[in-house]
Amino acid sequence: MLKRNRKVGFYLTLPAVLLMAAMTIIPVVSVLQRALSGNEAFGRLFTSPGFSQVMVNTALWTVLSVVGALVLGYFGAMILQSKYLRGVGLWRSLFLIPWIIPGVVGATIWKWNFSRDYGQINQVLLNMGVISSPIEWLSDPNLVLFALVIVQIWSTAPFVILLVSAALTGIPAERYEAARLDGANGFNLLRYITLPAVSATTALSALTLVTWALNAFTIIFVATKGGPAGSSTILPVLLYQAFQTGDESMVAVIALLQLVLSAIFATVYIRSMRNELEESAA
Amino acid sequence: MKMTRTTRTLTWGTLSWVGLALLVIWTMFPIAVMVFTSFKPGNEVFAKPNTLLPQNWTIDNFVNVLTDSTVPQALLNSVLVGVLATAITMVLSLSAGYALARFRYRGSRALSLFILMGQFIPITVLLLPFFIAINAMGLIDTIGGLAITHLVITVPLVTWMVRNQFASVPIELEEAAMIDGSTRLGAVLKITLPVAMPGLAAAAMFAFLQSWHEFVFASVITQSPSSRTGPISLTEFAGEFTVDWGATMAAAVVLTVPVVIIFLCLQRYFVAGLTSGAVKG
Amino acid sequence: MNTRRLASLGVAALTAAALLTGCSTSGGSADGNSVTWWVPNWDAPAAKELVADFTKANPEIKVKLVETTADTLANKVSVALNSGTTPDVITELASRTQQYIAKDQLTNLDKLYTDAMPKSDFLPGTLADVSTGDKAFAVPYRWDNLGLFYNKDLFEKAGITEPPTTLDELKADAEKLSTGDTTGIGWQLGNSDSTILRFFGLAASAPKDPATNVDGAAHLTESSSKAALDIIGASVRDGWASKSSLEADSTAVRQLFINGQIGMYLGGVYDLVELQKNKMNVGTALAPGFDGPSKTAANGWVYLVPKASKNVSAAEKLVSYLTTPEAMNKLTLTFPARTSAAQDDRFHTDLAAPFAAQLSDHSIPAPYDPSWGKLAPTLFAQIQAVAIGQSTSEEAAKTIQQAADAALKGK
């Protein structure tokens, strides 16, 4: 009965589509034009000595920060569902603060925390006797990217907590009751009720986190500027550097590369939603 | 039998609280650094050895921020921009999200992919065209002009969040209401919206915070204090070669606290009661 | 029917929202004789006084001040100039001026350089930054470069009586100073611009095949790059510069100095205010070089009038007032760009004198050609790579040379 009014669906989608078209088509076409019309920046980018390192860093950064934020976000949301806790509203609000703090401030605080000389993290580890000399979190090329991933997880996990919390509250308690009566254990409840109910949310959270990871330059720019020696440089940082130095052809090339990578993620995402889409609309 | 249940309750109860404590420490430790730094005098921020608590407490930073900067005004501007951007986003996304959840039509997948792709365009690429467009509308240096630019970073993902939320509400609920004589709009307003509320509230919160954080558009669209937003006002404490970190942290506290309070007040939209009641009915 | 209503709901709400935004428009009208001046917030208090004086003399011109901040200025100016909607006067960093000149976005200000303000009155190098050929597109008002700060107490404790005048002495002194929690010297290796400027100053002072600045483009040589890397990068690797250098920007290095964690650093004269506030027993000297004083890269601030300004003649009037010796003296945080404006005693104290001498006798303009910007990421990464021991000075100098040649070829 609902399927019949297909035109209505189209018209309802139209305002959002028109808005996005108005906002994005011209900039994207001009980027494509500049990037594809015999651009010397392609050569400069792909042959530069640090390029493969940038791509490896970008992949590591994206995977680790997305997985980390998902795991932590689920953990947080599950804890908040616990019926043994009091004051859940307050805790939930507290958990969201890292997401509310202006990005530059969050990055600066963590830069201090990781600082060799003033950092509380080294201070605590030294006091506990875990280490004997301060760790160079931000200037050791083998550590720096991981330290920065922690910052990204800290500031993005609250979003996952919020979204997953909302999805979990949508599962009727009766469903759990019924399953328990049928003899399901905790693992079964998770496997057959909780996870399916939040699968769409998981996919969307992952997509959002990927978007953020692929556009993130604040944290890295504030903390290390991509260093030392490029060991924390990722694509968005490279893009912002090019933008700041007025290297417009390079901006176009990196933007194109980022768009292509993102388009792959978006297509995978939309494909994964296919079954669910058909199910709900059929 | 009874014994084991009590033991289990005790174990899970303890585990829950331990997990909560760990998360609170993880979340709050850096925030404590921010708050305590805001009470430190300038020369203590980089003192060695560095302590978490100030050696000499001072409220000078807050006095400076509240009386001699545009931060209070910027807080208000940020909230206005955020609310405006969120309102427009929600109208567009509720409409599009509902359609994508409930209707299948030719090109619906292509359109949904198109909307989503907007999220991935680097802002640096959009900056100049947006400035020219906003200027042509006469909206440079206005709250409305900035809010419009923020739609490009809110509409795509919010549309998808709304879509998922509607899709998770069984369509039978809506149909039942329509069989009872309700119009479709009535069924959506009375049945679907309340059930989907926690997710929609989360989506609105997301939209607000995306706008709240945005720096690059705001740095060129706003010029005078009348439209300058929070993230831009923070840069007032950085000179050419010096940064007043005490004042910056105080400004961050001033910007953060009201939003946390607003969020605490909106808590009830995230709680379970609303949902399960409606589903049962 | 219902469905149509639902559809129109969205459209109606959208229209309402659009109207709402439209209402908040303030509608900036272009007043016949008003001038908008973008001024950085650290200059704003003095700028307000100057504007008051200016308006007294020119009551027909209204000046509107818009305060900018260090972190937003570059984006703001380049977007405004690219879009064609600009203020009338902008205070900008000298080294960014050339990129606007190249796009033909600035008004030629040659007619402001009259007998009352001859070009010869400006410090050497200042006008090159803002000119092509002999046409000037801006007026510099503030100029500065780097000198050496040293901690007199630490020097005394280490038994050093005089500040170093050559790099060999610098290294020897730094090694003497490095005991316990103190290290000899600190660099701003956490910040790209600061690092590169110091590198360029040293490379340009190399005794053989020095780097040069040709029309704003840096021409590097492998041997001079290596010589500079041996100081800036290798000092960290070898332990006579602080390991904290890799994380440090200007503020952090100054703080290390205040804490007594480093004994020396290369900084600008503006740091004196902070150091004296902290009651440091500080000394200043010319930057040590390979064989006597080193050149250091100079940069400054200028006034420019966009081509798209709606009121060029009033804007020029304002700029010509702002560049009188009196006004220049008032507004500069460091040194004025005109020699005739530098009479004030505060430019000639014992602590400021080395910086003034550095500026007039041992300075080289910071490169401003776009090729320098393109080279920046490679330079920064290679200097850091030497500091963390990832490459040797030889390898890094070779990599830098290849990138520099490529950047110049792309020009």
UniProtKB/TrEMBL annotation, chain A:
Domain of life, source organism: Bacteria
Biological-process GO terms, alphabetical: transmembrane transport
Cell compartment(s), UniProt: Cell membrane
Gene3D superfamilies named among the record's database cross-references: MetI-like (1.10.3720.10)
SUPFAM superfamilies xref list: MetI-like
Pfam families: BPD_transp_1
Keyword Membrane assigned: yes
Keywords per UniProt: Cell membrane, Membrane, Transmembrane, Transmembrane helix, Transport
Subcellular location, principal: membrane
Domain ABC transmembrane type-1, first and last residues per copy: 55-269
Membrane disposition: Multi-pass membrane protein
UniProt xrefs under InterPro entries: MetI-like (IPR000515), MetI-like_sf (IPR035906)
TM segment ranges: 12-36, 56-77, 89-110, 143-168, 189-210, 216-239, 251-270
Full protein name: Sugar ABC transporter permease
Organism expressing this protein natively: Mycetocola tolaasinivorans
Automatic annotation (TrEMBL), chain C:
A Pfam family this chain is assigned to: SBP_bac_1
Presence of keyword Signal: yes
GO molecular function: maltose binding
InterPro entries for this protein: SBP
GO cellular component: ATP-binding cassette (ABC) transporter complex, substrate-binding subunit-containing
Gene3D superfamilies xref list: Periplasmic binding protein-like II
A GO biological process held by the record: maltodextrin transmembrane transport
Record has Repressor as a keyword: no
CDD domains per the UniProt record, alphabetical: PBP2_TMBP_like
Signal sequence, renumbered to the chain: 1-29
Swiss-Prot/TrEMBL keywords: Signal, Transport
PANTHER family noted in UniProt: MALTOSE-BINDING PERIPLASMIC PROTEIN (PTHR30061), MALTOSE_MALTODEXTRIN-BINDING PERIPLASMIC PROTEIN (PTHR30061:SF50)
Homology family: Belongs to the bacterial solute-binding protein 1 family.
Record-given protein name: Sugar ABC transporter substrate-binding protein
